[in-house]
Structures are given as C-alpha cells and as structure tokens.
Design goal:
13-stranded antiparallel β-sheet; 11 helices; about 25% helix; disordered N terminus; about 30% strand; alpha+beta; about 400 residues
C-alpha cells in the first residue's frame, strides 16, 4: 500500500510539473492605461514633429489607453493593438521564432526583422535623439532580463482569478525606476516564448505576467490581463486561416512570392498586362488575371481600402456600373492593407460589393498602382490590353464609352 501511495504521489507530481511547464496556446487580452505629464508629453510630441514624424506615427504616444489582443501558438505570437477603445487596429506585431515583423493596417507597410543587427539599425535610423544610441542594446531594449526579478515579501494576490506572486525588477541604471510584475505560474511559456523582441511582456521564466506597473516622474503605465482563453489557436482565428505561423506570410503579403516577375515593371498604355496572382477574400485560394483571358469581357481592376472614405463613397457608382455592364465587364476589387478577412467581408456586404474581391500585397500595388493614390482603377479590354487608368470618380461615362466602343 505504501509503494502504491508513493507511485501515485510521483505520478501526480509529474503531472503537475508537466501541466505547469507545457507551452501556452490561446489568446490573452490586456488593457493598458497611460497617464502623462502634460508638459512633458507636449515637449515629446513637439520633438517628434520636428524630427519629421507624421501624426499617424505620433498618435500612440498621446493615447490614454490601449488594448492588446495576443494570439499565441507554439513559438509564434500575433499581437493586435487598439488605441483609446477604437475599433480600427492601430498596429500588428508578429513574431515566429527569432524573426519579427510590424504591420501597419492603415497603409499596409510591413517591417521585417530577422536579425538583431537589423533591429538596432532600424531604431538608429528612425530616431534623431543621440541618447537613444546608448539604449540600442538588445539585451536592454528588446529583451527584459528577468533573472533580476526580486520576489517581494508581501503575500500573493488574486488577480482575475489567478494567484500571483509580486516581483520587483530593479532599474538597470542608477537612479532609474523599478518595474513591478504580478506573475502567475498557471501559464508558463517555452523558451522561445520568453525571448521575443516585442513580446517579452507576456512570459517570464517564472510564469505569465498578469499585471504590470511602471511609474516615473513624467508618466504612469498600468497593464492588466483582462481575459485569457487557452486552447488551440486555429479554430479561433478563421480570418487568419491562411497565416502560416512559421513563414511570416499572411494573405495580403503572399504575392511577394507569387508575383516576383513584376519587380521593376511598369504599366504602359496599350501593351498586354502581365499575368499576376491574388488571394480571394472568400477563401485562401489563389486567383490569376490570365484565368480570365478567354472570357471575352473587359476587366476593371479597382484598388480600394476599408479605411479609405473616398473609396467607399464611390462604391455605389461602381456597383451600378458593374450591374449595367455585367454582360461585357468583370470587376476585380483589390483591398489594400487590411488583413482582417471578417472585417473586410462586413464592409463588402454593407456596400453590396458582389463582384470578385481580393487582397493586394506590396508587389502588386507597386506594379498596378505606383502612384499609391486610391481609389484607383485600370480598365483592360478582352485581350488584357490597358485601355484606361486613373481615379474612377467622375469618369464613369468615359469608361462606359470605351467599353461600348464609342
């Protein structure tokens, strides 16, 4: 009986150890509250403006709050940032292993980092503050040295139903400000989840961070875990179904591989347009221009974006134009920059966009719309020759004349 009890004790201990050490997979959602000293904030913003930063780049610095939704799978993390309870995603951070990328849903810009040196060079290039030169040390700037965590003597605290131990992270420089962490052992990440450049605010060797506080002379930051949903990530993310967590490719950027032959090419009036590929919003299937080569119809390629007011304002005219010429015309709309298939579908349904809908990645945009202005349209005849291009607003009669041969 004694041996049997010992066996069950060892088995239970191993089970607990396994449960605590296995990698977390699922969703974590955080809320961050900021409190800034008004004078210091104004000086900071003025400095950024003088350095040439756009209002879009400066916006996160004067936000009062932010929400972060973290999708975590194996050694990969996808973070969506929302500012001031806005519905529009402000920024996306993504990491797979030691590679990281930042996506800007507003303009589709994507910055990829594969090496420490690339990150250091990026920070060095994008700031005019000479003091930052001293901070561009990956061990300090991008990775938190959690080995310096000091367990506080105060008792453990319950936060969001999780028992947390409170730790202090002493300042890395004399006179600096200590950080405080409330850490639970309920969810412990693998080694790869503890060392990301952008995502080291989730996992520590001691467990996952449930609460974080930082108070300085000029600002206060309070971050707290609001919701946690453990479980397989794939069924939770239908809109990211085509995202391969090991390759850094999402639907709208996949044409980097598919459309390499377009590099350096420009559209000219009259010549036959080269073939190109794009992903349909409705699925992860690849479609191509030349698959429509023998349908005997004109093709109107329409560039738009979910955040582009003039584009959405022009949709009723495009819908009417497509319906009026459906017998001799096919419309292909290419969405710029918005990876959220579910959100894109809502816009499509709302504006009755019943024609072909696809994603446009950087290579496709650089080839078809080098001017980067939207809305933008290209009219091809049945032989796929370029007949017209430009802003369709106010030009629907001209496009109709070309189609009807007048």
């Amino acid at each position: 009986m004694k041996k049997l009890s010992s066996f069950f004790f060892i088995y239970f201990s191993l089970f607990v150890l396994y449960a605590q050490s296995r990698a977390f997979e699922g969703i974590m959602e955080y809320t961050i509250l900021f409190k800034h000293d008004p004078n210091y904030l104004q000086k900071t913003i003025t400095g950024f403006r003088n350095a040439g930063w756009t209002e879009r780049q400066i916006k996160p610095f004067y936000a009062d709050s932010a929400r972060i939704r973290c999708y975590i799978k194996q050694d990969s993390i996808w973070e969506e940032h929302f500012l001031n309870n806005e519905a529009q995603i402000d920024k996306i951070n993504y990491q797979a292993g030691f590679q990281a990328e930042v996506l800007d849903p507003y303009d589709g810009n994507r910055t990829v980092f594969g090496k420490i040196k690339e990150i250091e060079d990026h920070i060095d290039k994008n700031t005019n503050d000479p003091n930052w030169r001293e901070k561009i040390k990956v061990s300090e700037w991008f990775k938190t040295d959690y080995s310096r965590l000091k367990k506080l003597t105060r008792r453990k605290e319950m936060i969001q139903g999780y028992l947390c131990q409170v730790y202090e992270l002493p300042p890395s420089t004399p006179g600096g400000t200590p950080y405080y962490y409330w850490i639970t052992e309920d969810f412990i990440g693998e080694k790869e989840q503890q060392i990301p450049y952008f995502f080291n605010s989730i996992f520590t060797p001691q467990g996952s961070i449930v609460k974080y506080e930082m108070n300085t002379k000029f600002s206060q930051t309070h971050k707290i875990l609001r919701k946690i949903t453990p479980g397989p990530i794939t069924p939770i993310l239908p809109r990211l179904r085509s995202l391969n967590f090991g390759t850094l490719d999402s639907v709208q950027y996949a044409d980097q591989k598919l459309n390499q032959h377009l590099v350096g090419k420009n559209i000219e009036l009259a010549p036959t347009l080269p073939d190109f590929s794009f992903y349909s919003v409705d699925s992860d299937q690849v479609e191509s221009l030349y698959s429509r080569q023998n349908n005997g119809k004109f093709i109107l390629i329409d560039f738009w974006a979910t955040w582009c007011g003039p584009c959405l304002q022009e949709m009723p005219q495009l819908a009417a134009f497509q319906a009026e010429n459906a017998v001799v015309l096919e419309v292909i709309s290419l969405n710029e920059g918005d990876h959220r298939a579910d959100h894109v579908k809502q816009i499509i349904t709302q504006h009755k966009m019943t024609w072909t809908q696809g994603y446009a990645g950087k290579l496709l945009k650089a080839f078809l719309n080098p001017g980067k202005s939207i809305p933008h349209a290209i009219l091809l005849d049945s032989n796929l020759k370029v007949r017209w291009r430009g802003n369709p607003a106010g030009n629907w009669d001209k496009l109709a004349e070309i189609i009807r041969g007048n």
